[in-house]
Design goal:
By secondary structure, this protein is α+β, with helices and mostly antiparallel strands. It has 4 domains: 162 residues, Nucleotidyltransferase, domain 5; 78 residues, GIY-YIG endonuclease (3-Layer(aba) Sandwich), CATH 3.40.1440; 94 residues, no CATH class; 72 residues, no CATH class. The chain has 16 helices and 16 strands. The strands form 4 sheets. Strands 3-2-1-4-5 form a 5-stranded mixed sheet, with helices on both faces. The chain has a 5-stranded antiparallel sheet with strand order 15-14-13-12-16. Helix 5 packs parallel to helix 7, helix 11 packs antiparallel against helix 16 and helix 12 packs across helix 14. The protein starts with a strand and ends with a strand.
């Protein structure tokens, strides 16, 4: 049995926005068995642009039930059924988050009619619900309303089901004979790290994902390369650890790959970066750079060899017109070679002022420096009662831990005390800097 679902919301982020309308159509693959739809009071104002799109305004939802008032009905309707939706991840994430705020884990198997349509109905220019309905001559008189879109999705689903009535069966072929598929039912749809073991209980692969369940299934159904098939046939057992935060999952994965060096993990296996990029001011006030051995001092970034570091530094001198003498790449008592070919502005002989030269150096190393040198990153925890905490001190990654969300802002010492220390290296530095540039975290606390 299937529960075909569509929701309308106050915005696009399931983390920050709320459901304003829900429709559920219970379907056996051939016909509709039951239906339910309701407006929902989101307990926040609906933005004007959303009202223009859906037609749902604040007056309409003022007397509508709140989500917790229909939560039991939704659970009863969907119990034991597969959730179906057009881009189902969107609708499912909103429903899961609504239940999470009620401290309940809503967990159902899902099917996406967008993905199924691309597979079973190839050749269409667009697979959006509106365009697909036009191509299939399906009428939807209530576009961007939950019941109208759910009913249209049901008609698309019936066409797909007629082509292949085993839509819900995941094609897991060629698995290890000792692998127990019941393990898959225990995998959470949450961020974390997962571990693959062979018949000898040896760890052969470590991965991370925003959705552990979905990612593991993609491994087990992957026949695209010889390596993927080989690994799949060697998986006899699976374990996992929920991290709550995607960033913590990235950091944990990196650390554990370096520690355990699984045979099927090719990236991040190098565990030693003995050389680093360092900066210091000389007696004349010029900011100088150098590749040196990493000992007690914290480098801006690190490298697996002195040659790799010097090649990176040479590229920086080329890109930012830096002085090779002040980057320890050209030893001389006078001007550097770059000045002789008009690529250096003469800092090495005092012709370029320190303040002008130093601006270029700071631009060159900006990618290696955190905006706040000592800070905590606060993000989602493993449950609704806690937050994840990542500590960076003097530009160095210290580690991460978890803290009770109620005591989070009461005392900085609580944040320091919850941290478990991990190794700082080039990979974790890049993970942190890249993630903070691309994605939002809940809070950053400087100290």
């Amino acid at each position: 049995m299937y529960a075909i679902i569509d929701v309308e919301t106050t915005g696009l982020s399931s983390k920050n926005e709320k459901i304003t309308e829900i429709a559920i159509i219970i379907h056996d693959g051939k016909k509709i068995i039951d239906e339910f739809s309701s407006l929902i009071n989101p307990e926040k104002l609906i933005p004007y642009k959303i009202t223009m799109l859906t037609g749902i305004n604040n007056k309409m939802i003022a007397e509508a039930p709140k989500f917790h008032e229909i939560a039991k009905k939704i659970i009863e309707l969907t119990e034991g059924k597969i959730i179906v939706g057009h881009n189902v991840a969107f609708d499912y994430s909103f429903i899961k988050n609504e239940y999470a705020q009620l401290f309940y884990e809503f967990k159902r198997k899902t099917l996406c009619t967008v993905k199924l349509s691309r597979k079973l109905l190839p050749g269409y220019r667009s697979y959006s619900l509106g365009n697909l309905c036009k191509s299939l001559n399906i009428k939807n008189n209530s576009i961007h309303r939950a019941y109208g879109d759910a009913k249209a999705t049901a008609e698309v689903f019936e066409i797909l089901y007629e082509i292949d009535n085993k839509l819900s069966e995941i094609p897991l072929r060629g698995l290890n004979t000792n692998f127990n598929k019941k393990i898959l039912d225990e995998l959470p749809e949450k961020p974390g790290v997962y571990y693959f073991f062979n018949e000898d209980k040896k760890l052969i692969y470590i991965g991370k994902s925003k959705n552990i369940h979905s990612r593991v299934l993609s491994h087990l159904s992957n026949n695209s390369t010889k390596k993927a098939v080989e690994m799949k046939t060697n998986i006899a057992d699976i374990d996992f650890e929920i991290t709550g935060s995607e960033l913590v999952a990235l950091l944990k994965e990196s650390d554990e790959i370096k520690e355990h060096k699984p045979v099927y993990n090719r990236s991040q296996r190098r565990s030693v970066f003995p050389y680093g990029l360092f900066s210091n001011y000389n007696k004349d006030g010029y900011l100088c750079l150098a590749i040196e051995k990493v000992e007690d001092n914290i480098p801006l970034t690190s490298f697996s060899s002195a040659l790799e570091g010097k090649e990176r530094l040479f590229r920086l001198t080329e890109e930012y017109s830096l002085c090779q003498k002040f980057c320890s790449l050209y030893k001389t008592q006078s001007c550097c070679f770059q000045y002789q070919i008009n690529r250096c502005m003469g800092a090495c002989i005092g012709k370029e002022k320190p303040e002008d030269y130093n601006k270029k150096v700071k631009l060159a190393i900006a990618a290696y420096i955190f905006e706040n040198e000592s800070f905590f990153i606060i993000d989602e925890g493993r449950n609704n009662y806690e937050k994840s905490v990542i500590k960076v001190e003097n530009g160095k990654y210290i580690g991460y831990g978890f803290c009770d969300s109620e005591t989070l802002n009461s005392n900085l010492e609580i944040l320091h005390d919850c941290i478990k220390q991990y190794k700082n290296n080039r990979d974790v530095q890049q993970i942190l800097k890249s993630y903070l540039k691309r994605k939002r975290v809940e809070q950053i606390i400087s100290f």
